[in-house]
């Protein structure tokens, strides 16, 4: 596939991206579209369709379609009405017609499997440039010497770049080495995640439903062309001081926490393979004053991890990558391009961090609060409206 040239920066700028998550790969695709040849370094030895489901709101899908993911999303993404239900009775308190999002925002709303999307993004990146992704490369150290950045990996290899993009997630080594060496902070929320095959199941199970009770909430929806149900069970406890990062868990623990939920939800939980339950402790990080240090810049969870209650964490990483590539492709002075990226993205991402914190309260403070506040999508700055492919690239005066 040929690389279209859109910008005026020399293609020879050596750009290294650390991390081939959704943020890193979106950045690579957007940079390729602007005429660059970035190299992505990923610590995992291979891509595999691992992971769980994700909500991809219209703002994310607008970018993903622009980057060539439209066919995959249409094939595998699921758009269906989303119920908000009461945990005790299972009664539907509110229904959102997600089919409307295409008309309302100009891009669809999908539920997808993270691993499927990541693999397709990686395939596209490598179709454009077979040398663009280097697997099994865990960054260990990073140093800046004038305008060059040097990278050392756990496998003993080294690389040099003119610009390094840290897209290495909430435990970012790039952040830790050059920006902030504090640890992520546990939020008090724990999530259990599992996938259930839908083969042979009745329509009662083929739903998208957020079922909330006080301090606990279960979100389930279909992914992979309706072949799997993604189940995420959230619990908040003030007594939890800290928790393991991400670990295999026991289905018994899920029943202990959520055993009093309504019948339909419990029937879904009983379908979970006891060997397929993963527990995540949800962490956050303090906001950074600057996202740029010399020739190194951060994006996605490396700089602004957020609670998942707006379904916008991956979307913000994808938008970051789009805006960063547009800045690099169209603003000739590198420092100005990076400053413009930060000026555009920092307020947007920090607003979503705040709103995700607010939504955490809404979803865990009982059905009353939850029903009223389900109007959140109608707020003046509806996140789904944002168009990272076309917002003006301007530094504030
Ligand atoms: C329970 C839960 C539910 C969520 N639901 C949603 C949702 O519905 N919608 C949504 O938009 N978001 C959701 N999120 C958030 C979303 O998953 C993240 O915001 C998003 O994945 C961040 O993308 P990223 O590319 O910045 O980081 P990551 O996805 O974490 O990717 C980082 C990549 O860097 C690699 N890496 C790490 N360290 C190194 C290193 N030293 N060297 C090389 N490579 C490295 C990792 O292997 C990984 O591939 C959810 C999160 C959780 C925990």
Automatic annotation (TrEMBL):
Q: Which residues form the FAD-binding domain?
A: 15-356
Entry's transmembrane regions: none
Q: Which InterPro entries match?
A: FAD-bd, FAD-dep_Monooxygenase_BioMet, FAD/NAD-bd_sf
Cleaved signal peptide residues: none
Is Flavoprotein found in the keyword set?
Answer: yes
- Coiled coil where? none
Q: Does the keyword Cell inner membrane apply?
A: no
Question: Which keywords does this chain's UniProt record carry?
Answer: FAD, Flavoprotein, Monooxygenase, Oxidoreductase
Cofactor(s) needed? FAD
- One example GO MF annotation: FAD binding
Region (Disordered), start-end ranges: 370-397
Any Pfam family hit? FAD_binding_3
Supply the name of the protein: FAD-binding domain-containing protein
């Amino acid at each position: 596939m040929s690389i279209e040239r859109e910008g005026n920066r020399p293609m020879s700028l050596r750009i290294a991206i650390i991390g081939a998550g959704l943020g890193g790969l979106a950045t690579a695709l957007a940079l390729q579209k602007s005429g660059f040849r970035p190299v992505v370094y990923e610590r995992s030895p291979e891509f595999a369709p691992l992971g769980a489901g994700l909500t991809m709101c219209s703002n994310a899908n607008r970018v993903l379609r622009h980057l060539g993911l439209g066919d995959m999303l249409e094939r595998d993404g699921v758009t269906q009405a989303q119920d908000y239900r009461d945990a005790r009775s299972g009664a539907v308190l509110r229904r959102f017609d997600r089919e409307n999002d295409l008309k309302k925002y100009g891009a669809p709303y999908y539920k997808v499997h993270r691993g499927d999307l990541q693999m397709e993004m990686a395939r596209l990146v490598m179709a454009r440039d077979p040398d663009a992704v280097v697997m099994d490369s865990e960054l260990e150290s990073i140093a800046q010497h004038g305008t060059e950045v040097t990278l050392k990996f756990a496998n003993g290899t080294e690389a040099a770049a003119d610009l390094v993009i840290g897209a290495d997630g909430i435990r970012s080594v790039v952040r830790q080495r050059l920006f902030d060496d504090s640890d992520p902070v546990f939020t008090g929320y724990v999530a259990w995640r599992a996938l259930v095959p839908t083969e042979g199941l009745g329509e009662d199970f083929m739903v998208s439903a957020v079922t909330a009770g006080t301090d606990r909430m279960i979100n389930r929806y279909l992914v992979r062309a309706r072949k799997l149900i993604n189940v995420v069970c959230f619990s908040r406890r003030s007594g939890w001081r800290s928790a393991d990062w991400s670990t295999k868990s026991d289905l018994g623990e899920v029943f202990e926490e959520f055993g009093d939920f309504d019948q339909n939800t419990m029937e879904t939980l009983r379908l979970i393979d006891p060997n397929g339950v993963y527990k995540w402790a949800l962490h956050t990080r303090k906001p950074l004053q600057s996202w740029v240090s010399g020739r190194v810049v951060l994006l996605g969870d490396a700089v602004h991890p957020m609670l998942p209650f707006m379904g916008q964490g991956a979307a913000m990483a994808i938008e970051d990558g789009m805006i960063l590539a547009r800045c690099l492709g169209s603003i000739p002075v590198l420092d100005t391009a990076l400053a413009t990226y930060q000026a555009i993205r920092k307020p947007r991402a920090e607003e979503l961090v705040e709103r995700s914190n607010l939504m955490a309260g809404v979803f865990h403070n009982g059905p009353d609060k939850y029903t009223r506040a389900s109007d959140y999508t109608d707020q003046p700055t509806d996140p789904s409206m944002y168009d990272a492919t076309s917002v003006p690239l301007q530094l504030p005066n």
